[in-house]
Amino acid sequence: MPKKVLITGGAGFIGLHLSRSLSNQGYHVTILDNLDRGKADRDFKDLIKKKNVKFVKADITNPKTFHKLKGKFDYIYHLAALNGTDNFYKIPDRVIKVGVIGTLNILDWFVKHKKGKLLFSSSSEAYSGGLNLLKDRFPIPTPEGVPLIVENPENVRWSYGASKILGEVSIHAYAKTHKMKNFTIIRYHNIYGPRMGFEHVIPQFIERIVKKENPFNIFGGQEARTFCYIDDGVKATQMVMESEKTNGQTVNIGRSDDEIKIIDLAKKLFKIVGVHPQINIKDAPEGSVKRRCPKVEKLKRIGFTAEIPLLEGLRKTYEWYKDKF
Length: 325
Ligand SMILES: NC(=O)c1ccc[n+]([C@@H]2O[C@H](COP(=O)([O-])OP(=O)(O)OC[C@H]3O[C@@H](n4cnc5c(N)ncnc54)[C@H](O)[C@@H]3O)[C@@H](O)[C@H]2O)c1
Fold this sequence. Notes:
Layout: E1 4-8, H1 13-24, E2 28-33, H2 42-48, E3 53-57, H3 64-67, E4 75-78, H4 85-90, H5 92-113, E5 117-123, H6 128-134, H7 158-177, E6 183-188, E7 191-192, H8 201-210, E8 216-219, E9 224-225, E10 228-229, H9 230-242, E11 250-253, E12 260-261, H10 262-273, E13 279-282, H11 297-301, H12 310-321
Bound molecules: nicotinamide-adenine-dinucleotide.
The site of nicotinamide-adenine-dinucleotide has 29 residues, from helix 1, helix 5 and strand 5.
């Protein structure tokens, strides 16, 4: 019997790639999404045409959503969230509601039928408070066990990071109360690739290169980051879900090799596109973190290695984006 999978947020960036990969492997996939951010574009329409893919358009903040779902699931990937920096400032109440109420609703439903395994997607944002406050004393590459701190509750940017922290706390609280071991928390770190939206440094650089910006403005540029191509991110997500070794654990998903400064990221994209603009360095945005890199030992221990080098991933991403502007 093919395994049954539920993916909340399955119309979004990671969710769609994950749904496509699992459906190609023969899993029965149910996508649950309200299309708030996910788009019913050609990729999505093609995907839900498949016999083993079902789409349920519903809002996770409504508790009835989950109880209306038919059948039981072997794997539940909870990816739905309202991210996007603009949303953190413009509709922080909604960001919190989706992140917290949505997660509590799925937990209430999950502990009732106690079947399958639940994977909650948290974020590197959950520990960015510690990173900002502790500065040089904060471990980088960052392991999973660091403290999660809300740096400033008055700054609504924290609606997202705080909702991820509370999501993680909620999973542990339900696990303890209901004696459940079949869950894993993942923290994604800069997953990139086709259909990732337009709010991230990579599509934004591509847009400005395509529009022939010269001189090319870079704000800061010395910040070091790591990027993980979506195919690797999807593979890691599935491996974490399907490994019993990750039950009850938090696992970073990303990579710790391939660290690169933002200015060099821009230069790699120039090389791919074949342009040579003059670079104009401007002040770094306020509060920008110098270095962010996950420790990925836990991921390695379940046998995962990233396969797509940055240059190849950027090339594939550019190919997808180049006609979109
Ligand atoms: N992409 C990354 O690098 C990254 C990094 C850290 C964490 N994450 C987390 O991973 C998950 C997936 O990220 P993504 O980049 O694919 O985001 P995304 O915005 O592309 O996808 C999220 C999906 O959730 C859906 N959604 C939002 N509110 C909903 C609601 N109330 N009911 C039902 N569906 C709703 C959206 O329509 C969207 O399709 C999110 O939880 C995100 O916070 C991603």
